[in-house]
Amino acid sequence: MEYLIFTGVVLAVLLLLYGYGLNYALKTEYYTVTSPGLRKDIRIVLLTDLHACEYGPGNSRLLDKINDLSPKFICIAGDMTVKGGKNTETVLTFLRRLVQRYPVYYAPGNHEIRMTDHNEYRRRLQEMGIHYLENKIMPLENNICIAGLDMPEYWYHKFWQKRVCSPEYIEELLGRRRKGAYTILLAHNPEYFPCYAEWGADLTLSGHVHGGMARLPFVGGVISPSLRLFPKYDAGQYEYRGRYMILSRGLGLHDIKFRFFNVPEISCIKLQKTED
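The structure corresponding to this sequence follows.
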């Protein structure tokens, strides 16, 4: 019996060390999205949910991995900070280095909108040249538009609180999508993906779920931030009526910092033109 107890304790400690150690790992996941609405092939990088964590001094490891990918531009789908503002300067230092090399398009998540100094944070991002998209659509070259969705905190709810979204509500926030343009939507919360697609997003880029917090082999994410067990959208690529979502596992955690079978993710996305 004592041997079994000792073995159990050792295994539990090793599992905790493994879960904590994954906070310092980084993995690039590669996705391909095809569409006849694209005029040329483009590589972009999606970052989400850094939560003021740091990979090397000034996030040098993270920046090196991004540079290795040579993206056309960077999309950020929210929660780079934490709501209490801790280590915000670390985030700003990293973003300043990032925007010196790439165009950066950033939509807020629930942590940004909860920051007491959100206005100051926004101002500093805009001053360094980041396109901070709060319910705004920005046209780019090659027939691409990027839309940044800023949903009120009401939409970040627990599973027992009923929320019904509609494409009409997204249109109230964003306006109509640009007709004929390939539209990328930065929307932090993936829960409403069908609604985003029906609004007209050709590609939705999301985070928020942290890969389901922990992941089980062959099962996927275990629990969402809304405390929903085995959430429908946890990580990876999804399709709804010919439109797509890339959902990142995210780069960091903010409270309980254990990532079981859930490596932090940089998302590298190839937008590939196809013939009509």
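The first strand starts at residue 27 and ends at 35.
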